[in-house]
């Protein structure tokens, strides 16, 4: 059996199903390796398993389950579920093991695996690769139990919020797995829901369900406008990313959503720590500090965000990709369903519209996150080279995740980092003025041209 090492990424495993990178044989071995890992390290004797609605997920889940059972590990099979439902089950079943067969926001040809190394703790794909390569697996006979947790999950989440007034909300799940859960969850709070693309279709016929993509958010916004809704919510394929549009159909960046969520927490628990990733706007830091909170930057990705939350005892964390992590009144993992409920709760307590609330936030000119395709083997060194170039020019560099460069003259910053999930580098810029933003972008273009990087800048 051949394995492509590049599918084992920092936060999980991601690979294509149309070229043999992932198949049933590989998932069976993954199951054997995971069961062995949990048992040998005395982490768990039982694990929860879920899958998304992709065409390959059911057969891959069956192969994985067979592998896990063959080690003597017991399984609670959730069937079709969201990633946050799998994490939630860990806490509610008190089991150190969890596995989710999903490629999250990736296109339909992809699949993957998210696994834990204890309750609320992720096992990185890089570490899992070492376990798989050992090829020494325990043998036994585990027990399999099926469990439908949908009603209990919904009941728990709505018990944690108090929505003051009825709102009209568009819900777009992009034909992904979230359509099984989100409409029922939000209706249970009394919110009026306009469903859009909530039917399950593993072909993703309209677009890949990913709130970072312009196509999904523009479509959500158009439905908001035509239905005169208060705002729109979009969810990725496995329900751990959330996107927001205002009542005018305009996209509201997730880092600005984080500000609204932080306000509620800091009102009830002042001086709390909040974590955000290195791509987040300076507006988040300005607002959190003005409210008496403490903001901490962290590298992008579940593994790094969770580590920083534990290190700083943070109550809330967010990424510009739309991942929102709640420790306050919750369990500390990223759950787009719970984040959506808290946004609805916040907006239901406001007299102003979403666009009016956004207009009051600190003003910065920000670029989208740009993705440029780069060979997987070259992207790490390229980021180092560009960072060193700016350092030689006398700029202050933060190397928390890639290179985030401060530009005092332009009252802004720019960042270059390698993507955790694709063969790309990621760029983002911000300044107090449009002129400053353009100057920062041009400085990066000059550096990239010097290193012969000429790929398309795709906004994500």
TrEMBL record:
Pfam families linked to this entry: PGM_PMM_I, PGM_PMM_II, PGM_PMM_III, PGM_PMM_IV
Family that this chain belongs to: Belongs to the phosphohexose mutase family.
Keywords in alphabetical order: Isomerase, Magnesium, Metal-binding, Phosphoprotein
Cofactors, names only: Mg(2+)
Species per Swiss-Prot/TrEMBL record: Candidatus Spechtbacteria bacterium RIFCSPLOWO2_02_FULL_38_8
Protein name, per record: Phosphomannomutase
MF annotations from Gene Ontology: intramolecular phosphotransferase activity; metal ion binding
One BP annotation, GO: carbohydrate metabolic process
Domain Alpha-D-phosphohexomutase alpha/beta/alpha: 6-133, 152-249, 254-363
InterPro entries associated with the record: A-D-PHexomutase_a/b/a-I, A-D-PHexomutase_a/b/a-I/II/III, A-D-PHexomutase_a/b/a-II, A-D-PHexomutase_a/b/a-III, A-D-PHexomutase_C, A-D-PHexomutase_C_sf, Alpha-D-phosphohexomutase_SF
Ranges of residues in domain Alpha-D-phosphohexomutase C-terminal: 372-446
